[in-house]
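Fill in residues.
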């Protein structure tokens, strides 16, 4: 969902997803994902969002995929 929202430029949806990931990842002990989600949320709060937001969002998506992969 985050990837789709990013591609469409849906910043409000991205904020909601980042906020949700921040809390859920933190409660399950995925601190790096939680911190990246917090960074994305903070970057999206700026108007307009800085270019770093895209890079940070891509890194968050990558980390989430890694966390989902079975070992």
């Amino acid at each position: 969902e985050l990837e789709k929202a990013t591609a469409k430029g849906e910043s409000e949806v991205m904020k909601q997803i980042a906020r949700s990931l921040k809390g859920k990842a933190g409660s399950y002990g995925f601190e790096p994902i939680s911190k990246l989600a917090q960074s994305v949320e903070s970057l999206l709060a700026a108007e307009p969002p800085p270019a770093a937001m895209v890079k940070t969002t891509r890194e968050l998506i990558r980390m989430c995929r890694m966390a989902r992969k079975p070992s």
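Residues 5 and 13 are 6 Å apart (CA to CA).
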